[in-house]
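Lab notebook, bench 4. We co-purified these components, and the gel suggests they stay together. Before we commit to crystallization screens, I want a quick structural picture of the whole thing.
Request: model the full complex, all chains together.
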Amino acid sequence: MVLNVEPSCKTCTCHEEVDLSHVEKILAKYNNDRAELLSILEEVQADYGYLPQNALRMVAERTGSSMVDVFGVATFYRAFNLKPRGKHCISVCMGTACHVKGAPNVVKEFERQLGISVGETTPDNEFTLETVNCLGASALGPIVMVDGHYFSHVTPAKVKWLLSMVRAGLDKVDVKTDSRIIHLDVLCPHCNQSLMDSVHPIDGCPSIHTTITFNGVSGHARLSSLYGSYSIQSEPDAPVGTTVDFFCPSCNKKLTTTSRCPECGELMALMRVSGGGVVQICTQRGCKGHILDLSEIDI
Amino acid sequence: MVNFVLNGLPVSVEKGSTILEAAQFYGFPIPTLCHMEGLSPYGACRLCVVEIGEGPRAKLVTSCTYPVEEGLKVRTASERVIKARRMVIELLLASCPQSKTIQDLASAHGVRQQRFRQEYEDCILCGRCIRMCKEQMMAKAIGFRGRGEGRSIGTPFDMKSEQCRQCGGCIYVCPACQLRCTYTEPEKAVCGGCANLTPPCVEKDSFDDMMCYMNPCVACEIKKDL
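Here is the predicted assembly.
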């Protein structure tokens, strides 16, 4: 049972040449500490998209643990993959609520459309199909998550449309039809004057008008008011990486607060959202860090 | 020394020993599959359950992993324990009916049928071979892989292991695959041949070199005399 195992190299990736320099870096970061095994494997997976066999061997060797222990951990957690994954990962929720609402049929339709079964990757390495136990939005079931984007009330009839959406690229935002887009009306937190500028629309919606200074220069900036859109028109244009001070054009008070950007650690500029809540954006040009807090209002 | 009550008998054993060790020392048999002297306790097979405590607070624990405590009250064969054990045997039979060890256990505990969907596995995932490989052979060639119903034992990536010295220790200690019960009809989970005292056992050639839980076995004795 145990001893007479033939290497099954048809399916595994043992002959694949993988550049291990990233693993080396990750291991050095964690000091080759075996207590950090999960973090190490998570980072390796994030870098390579899966856990290559020789990467696992290297992790085992450096952390001083045995290969079976590392392999046991890597196969125990659903988050780890031992085979390369497709460019897009489709997770169909098979939790109880989604299941009774027809998720199995959705899975079947995905399998039919893609020609693969659950857990497999299409031969062109475009799609990986998997089922998950709950995506935390059971009221909207059946839920399908593709590359971090949620799709609710998915029916087998919607699968084809969904796949074409994914092929076209989910990060492209179609302002008119995309239901994920919300539009924010913002006010100055000091004088409560609206910052919206309907004369110069961006993305088809009124823009947010502020005055800016950076590196001793001052000017105007118009930001898109669509949450999730990072379109900006600035005069003069601030180079990427510079920290910009935002001011209210009405009361000339600084919008910058003391809170720090979760992405880059730079200071944030705060604006009030009309109806309640606040939105904070990072003051560093090029950083997409932002915090939206709408806890005071019902959307 | 720790003093406690074992099946109503006040006993004392060395601190740190488990209930299973104490019971075996005092001659109360507790069946077990995953426990083995020289290997660390694991508590996987659940066969060695015993009842501890009293009244509504009584609970079932695996005796192989439970260290004795001062004043502990242990029952190794109460009705609840027997019931739980028989259920465990039924479940083991449902997954591994061809293991001679499990068939013998079923016979010894009067389990005559199992009520679950029949499977024909080779492994009960007791982890004995893994502990043997790791603790006695210092090889760490095999381990658990996956989880849930996909859990299995083997080498990483199913490849020939560099650590394995082909010592065969894993097979030697395996309670499920070392002896096969050859009498088992596929559709019938419980063989019952050993428990059957009437002569069919004598007539069956397949029982020639089989180990039998009955020692001495009436049927074998008859056969010898023939």
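The helical segments of chain A are 21-29, 37-48, 53-63, 67-76, 96-100, 103-114, 159-168. Worth comparing against the SEC data before the next meeting. Chain A has a mean pLDDT of 82.
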